[in-house]
Amino acid sequence: MKIRLLTPLLVLALGGTAMAQTPSILEGLLPPGSASTSGQIIQMLAVLTVLSIAPGLLIMVTSFTRFAIAFSLLRAGLGLQTTPANLVMISLALFMTFYVMAPVFDRAWQNGVQPLVNNQITRDVAMNEITTPFREFMLRQVRDKDLRLFEDLADESFRTKADGVVDLRILIPAFMISELRRGFEIGFLIVLPFLVIDLIVATLTMSMGMMMLPPTVLSLPFKILFFVLIDGWNILVGSLIRSYT
């Protein structure tokens, strides 16, 4: 009987002890600051969210979009469906992005990330130092027409400030559509010579009466040979990288 009476008391005591230890556990897991426990939890969730969409951020604020579109249209122009493989094309575009963006990454690390890790600057200052190199890179590549489009559509609260600083909510979408346009322009120049080869082969096959033979079957070896003879990979990669200088 005594055991039955003591059991609820022990449960309450243990529950109270666990509840008392919960804030200390959270204080150990969460970074110190003036925010409440709920606010720190929200900050942690925000950080995890940013890390989960990091690949998307890489596409939005770097040169990856232009490279990926150019390589995709190259494969379409050659008439190859799965060669080179998607992994090869994406990897090449990714490493070319690291090559082009290396100065931007270095500045963001040296001026923003490293001082923040060493507790030399605050988070607000670090955020500004990290975004400034990317902002300058995007401003050099964005078209004025695209920038004006999003400025005209933007709310008054985040339009371009009096000091000339463009809000990232305006700059990033304008930069993305500028990159899409340039990627398709480069893709057109890539596909055009292959289209000429297709037309020539189609004309020859029609003149010889080979109606049932698809022209692409004969044009594919010639397009690959043409691309290899002109050292196409060297020309294409060099042209894409020089387009950012």
Count of separate structural domains:
1
Mean pLDDT: 76
Overall, the morphology is elongated
Main β-sheet, in a few words?
none
Strand content: under 5%
| Cα radius of gyration in angstroms | 28 Å
Note the run of SSEs as H and E: HHHHHHHHHHH
- Multimeric state: single chain
Question: What is the SS-derived class?
Answer: mainly alpha
Helix count from the secondary structure assignment = 11
* Low-pLDDT windows of residues: 1-30
Q: Which percent range fits the helix content? A: over 70%
Membrane topology: Multi-pass membrane protein
Family: Belongs to the FliP/MopC/SpaP family.
Keywords: Bacterial flagellum, Bacterial flagellum biogenesis, Bacterial flagellum protein export, Cell membrane, Cell projection, Cilium, Flagellum, Membrane, Protein transport, Signal, Transmembrane, Transmembrane helix, Transport
Function: Plays a role in the flagellum-specific transport system.
Please explain how this structure is put together.
- With 245 residues, this protein is mainly α.
- It has one domain.
- It is elongated.
- 20% of the residues are buried.
- The N terminus is likely disordered.
- Keywords: Bacterial flagellum, Bacterial flagellum biogenesis, Bacterial flagellum protein export, Cell membrane, Cell projection, Cilium, Flagellum, Membrane, Protein transport, Signal, Transmembrane, Transmembrane helix, Transport.
- It is found in: Cell membrane; Bacterial flagellum basal body.
- Belongs to the FliP/MopC/SpaP family.
